[in-house]
């Protein structure tokens, strides 16, 4: 038996070996001619800090909104109180990533060598810097993530010990929390570092975390549903290819391209949703990116947030069993009304902010029209898209009768053979990391404070509005 002290020394040596290998691989695949993402971001920091200082100095006292009692008791919905640089969600226009629509991102961001969809590396670069990267910059980022991708042995062992009955999202957040052991920020903070350097450590932690997520997510999938074996990361391939290959779908070029699209469009959706806000809140306390993202993932696991695409697929599957191949307008309409009259909502329709068809839904629909137009489940989705808005409008209890992103993604994944709906939120979690971690880095770069809104009791609110209870 190995003594505890000896096991610790062995573990430390293994981790040091991982870090050294990652650094050497990065040097191998990077080029001095192409500025790294870290260098590009560092050059932007002084200007961003000055912009914020000027804005607060000249306009800090201006009122930008009001808060109603309904908003206070309605989950703070619509209250303008967060800063989120990566994306803004317009109720009529949909999401914009650094000012760019999804179609614009699909056109402008570098694409995979064998596909038509933008690379996740490009959306991460865009969200962090506000700039569209070059192909060389994206290739360098792919290489860096591949070089940082080794997962510590103890994390793999931790996942191997998890029972298959433990939900994939619980395993995912558990593994991400365990990576706190590798946090360069936590180690540097314990020794004492200058506040101005916080962002650099947050950057390195975020890069390590993003790089390791596909292997962790694939390990969970392969352990629960397959043989437990996970392919090694190919150092010369892009992020989405490696993730697809580790899941077991690397030979299907269309699936790889779908995963590129999926990771891009699910990455960011403003800062007020549960996963984004939670990650931001925990990070504001100077918890490392590992702990912050783990908290966000646990919010994403909730049935009112990340589990929605799974619920949509289950609902569609139930419908298909009941109506069979007869996708007539009458059958679809009847099933919709049966759902509503039964006290259920139509999953995948409606949105807290949007008042139009979600552009993320549209991008997936366009992918399906090109790749799987004859698929029965896609045809069902199309029929629901045709009929549901009218039924929901007539029903009158849905502010937005149009589909959101969750109304489509499960059907696409199922078509290519990833049929385990219980796992879908893990894919969402890998994607969401690409959106929330840039904001953590930005927060530390500009010196954002800990988040601490004011709260009152119901009695105090009654007093404020002049009510008697």
UniProtKB/TrEMBL annotation:
GO terms for molecular function: 2-methylcitrate synthase activity; citrate synthase activity. It catalyses: propanoyl-CoA + oxaloacetate + H2O = (2S,3S)-2-methylcitrate + CoA + H(+); oxaloacetate + acetyl-CoA + H2O = citrate + CoA + H(+). The active site is at 305, 351, 406. Pfam families: Citrate_synt. One of its GO terms (biological process) is carbohydrate metabolic process. GO terms for cellular component: mitochondrial matrix. CDD domains: ScCit1-2_like (cd06105). Keywords: Transferase, Transit peptide. InterPro entries: Citrate_synth-like_lrg_a-sub (IPR016142), Citrate_synth-like_sm_a-sub (IPR016143), Citrate_synthase (IPR002020), Citrate_synthase_AS (IPR019810), Citrate_synthase_euk (IPR010109), Citrate_synthase_sf (IPR036969). Belongs to the citrate synthase family. NCBIfam families: cit_synth_euk, PRK09569.1. This is Citrate synthase.
């Amino acid at each position: 038996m190995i003594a505890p002290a000896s096991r610790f020394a062995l573990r430390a040596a293994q981790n040091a070996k991982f870090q050294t290998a990652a650094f050497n691989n990065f040097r191998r695949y990077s080029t001095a001619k192409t500025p790294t993402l870290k260098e590009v971001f560092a050059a932007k920091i002084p200007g961003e800090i000055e912009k914020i200082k000027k804005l607060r100095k000249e306009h800090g006292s201006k009122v930008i909104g009001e808060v109603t009692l309904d908003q206070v008791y309605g989950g703070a919905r619509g209250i303008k109180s967060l800063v989120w640089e990566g994306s803004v969600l317009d109720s009529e226009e949909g999401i914009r990533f650094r000012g760019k629509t999804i179609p614009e991102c699909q056109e402008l961001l570098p694409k995979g060598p064998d596909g038509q969809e933008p690379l996740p590396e490009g959306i991460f670069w865009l969200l962090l810097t506000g700039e569209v990267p070059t192909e060389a910059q994206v290739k360098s980022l792919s290489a860096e993530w591949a070089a940082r991708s080794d997962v510590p042995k103890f994390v793999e062992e931790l996942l191997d010990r998890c029972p298959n009955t433990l939900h994939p999202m619980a395993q995912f957040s558990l593994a991400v929390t365990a990576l706190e052991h590798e946090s360069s920020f936590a180690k540097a903070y314990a020794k004492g570092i200058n506040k101005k350097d916080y962002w650099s450590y947050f950057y390195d932690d975020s890069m390590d975390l993003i790089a390791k997520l596909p292997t962790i997510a694939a390990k969970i999938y392969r352990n629960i549903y397959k043989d437990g074996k996970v392919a090694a990361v190919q150092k010369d391939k892009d992020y989405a290819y490696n993730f697809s290959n580790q899941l077991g779908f690397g030979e299907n070029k269309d699936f790889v391209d779908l995963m590129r699209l999926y990771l891009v469009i699910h990455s960011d959706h403003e800062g007020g949703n549960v996963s984004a806000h939670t990650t931001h809140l925990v990070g504001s306390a100077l918890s490392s990116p590992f702990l912050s993202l783990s908290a966000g993932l646990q919010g994403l696991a909730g049935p009112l947030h990340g589990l929605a695409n799974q619920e949509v697929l289950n609902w569609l599957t139930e419908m298909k069993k009941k109506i069979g191949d007869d996708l007539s307008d009458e059958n679809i309409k009847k099933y919709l009304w049966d759902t509503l009259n039964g006290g259920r909502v139509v999953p995948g329709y409606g949105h807290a902010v949007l008042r139009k068809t979600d552009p993320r839904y549209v991008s997936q629909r366009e992918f399906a029209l090109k790749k799987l137009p004859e698929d029965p489940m896609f045809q069902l989705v199309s029929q629901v898209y045709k009929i549901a808005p009218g039924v929901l409008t007539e029903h009158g209890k849905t502010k937005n009768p149009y589909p959101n992103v969750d109304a489509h993604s499960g059907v696409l994944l199922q078509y290519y053979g990833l049929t385990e709906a219980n796992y879908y939120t893990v894919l969402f979690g890998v994607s969401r990391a690409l959106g929330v971690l840039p904001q953590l880095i930005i927060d530390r770069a500009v010196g954002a404070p800990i988040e601490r809104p004011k709260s009152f009791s119901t009695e105090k609110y009654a007093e404020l509005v002049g009510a008697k209870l």
